């Protein structure tokens, strides 16, 4: 009987709180609140109709120890033309290279050209585009001795440094003289560090079209300790503003073998199911298997699936109260017990009732109960 009552309580697919309020009006049994929570949490319709999960707290990348230690790369499209954008995490120094086509071979050639000027980085962060995947790019990373790290697909925020550099590159490429605009960007102090990308990358300021004293162009490294303090203070402000704006909430880690529902931000409904294989090296990134395919998804796009409880083992016929009256079915073989004797009458003191001319009852406050007769 309990499963049927629970099903009726959850008709309309309301939430846990409203289902509990509905049950309070009619039925009760031990641990009914827990049973309502289980049936609502495991309802297939309710799980598929849940909104997109909230964003997690922002993770900022600490400033590397030196220039060109950690770089990010991405491809941007502007006016039917494609460009390779590479940015240094330490100095925010940007390199832009035109791509005649979108092949992996052309992308690798442009990266080799950039590496010939600045050397091989320790780490290269990219998305999972076809230009950065495949056996040829893996061999390229081994030959040039750098670690290739890819971010979660369909989650551009994971490669935020490159995405921000792409915005800057598009602004530069839209100008009449993009080479002059790129030079000015490299020579302008940034708010994130307090110095220009050229100073952190080259150890000196570069000469531009604006008149500058020769002493300002001499090689002098900026105070790196002060640069780190400014960078951390700015990133702390980024985290505080982002977390407050999006009302973030950390999501628990997923274990291997767990059944999950998969939904991208652009999709509707948690209708796809998958099984977690393992957690990737990148934070909040998992490999899942669905429909015979292995996909990589961010934690925000995965929601654990809760299995329906086994109500047959709960002994749901023991004790149910409807409208405050208990109902306990007795075995058919036992005779009905004798009715209990009538209790002795209880005398209840009558409290005088006072009414106003409009018919409203006048009730004295409780704190005056000892004095009002």
UniProtKB/TrEMBL annotation:
Composition bias type Basic and acidic residues, residue spans: 314-326, 363-373
Domain Integrase catalytic stretches: 63-227
Bias kind Pro residues: ranges: 328-347
Superkingdom of source: Eukaryota
InterPro entries, sorted: Integrase_cat-core, Integrase_H2C2, Retrovirus_Pol_polyprotein, RNaseH-like_sf, RNaseH_sf
Region (Disordered): 299-373
Pfam families named in the record: Integrase_H2C2 (PF17921), rve (PF00665)
GO MF, one example: nucleic acid binding
Protein name listed in UniProt: Gypsy retrotransposon integrase-like protein 1
Organism expressing this protein natively: Seriola lalandi dorsalis
């Amino acid at each position: 009987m309990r499963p049927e009552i629970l099903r009726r309580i959850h008709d309309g697919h309301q939430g846990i709180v409203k289902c509990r309020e509905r049950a309070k009006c009619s039925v009760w049994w031990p641990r009914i609140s827990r049973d309502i929570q289980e049936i609502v949490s495991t309802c297939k319709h309710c799980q598929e109709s849940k909104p997109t999960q909230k964003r997690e707290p922002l993770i900022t990348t600490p400033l590397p120890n030196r220039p060109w230690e950690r770089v990010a790369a991405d491809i941007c499209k502007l006016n039917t033309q494609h460009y390779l954008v590479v940015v240094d995490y330490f100095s925010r120094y940007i390199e832009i290279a035109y791509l005649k086509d979108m092949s992996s071979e052309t992308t690798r050639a442009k990266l080799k050209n950039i590496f010939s000027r600045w050397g091989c980085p320790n780490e290269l962060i990219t998305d999972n585009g076809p230009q950065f995947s495949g056996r040829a790019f893996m061999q390229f990373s081994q030959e040039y001795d750098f670690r290739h790290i890819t971010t979660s697909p369909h989650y551009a925020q994971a490669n935020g440094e490159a995405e921000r550099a792409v915005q800057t590159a598009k602004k530069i490429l839209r100008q009449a003289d993009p080479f002059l605009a790129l030079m000015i960007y490299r020579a302008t102090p940034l708010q994130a560090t307090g110095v220009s990308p050229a100073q952190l990358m080259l150890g000196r300021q570069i000469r531009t079209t604006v008149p500058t004293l020769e002493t300002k162009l001499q090689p002098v490294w900026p105070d790196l300790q002060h640069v780190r303090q400014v960078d951390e203070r700015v990133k702390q402000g980024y985290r505080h503003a982002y977390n407050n704006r999006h009302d973030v909430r950390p999501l628990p880690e997923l274990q291997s073998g767990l059944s999950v529902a998969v939904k991208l931000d652009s999709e509707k409904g948690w209708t796809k199911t998958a099984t977690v294989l393992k957690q990737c090296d990148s934070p909040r990134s998992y490999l899942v298997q669905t429909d015979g395919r292995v996909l990589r998804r961010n934690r925000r796009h995965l929601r654990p699936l809760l299995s329906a409880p086994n109500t047959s083992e709960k002994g749901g016929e023991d004790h149910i109260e409807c409208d405050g009256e208990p109902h306990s079915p007795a075995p058919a073989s036992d005779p009905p017990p004798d009715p209990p004797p009538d209790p002795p009458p209880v005398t209840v003191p009558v409290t005088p009732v006072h009414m106003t001319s409009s018919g409203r009852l006048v009730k004295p406050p409780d704190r005056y109960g000892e004095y009002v007769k």
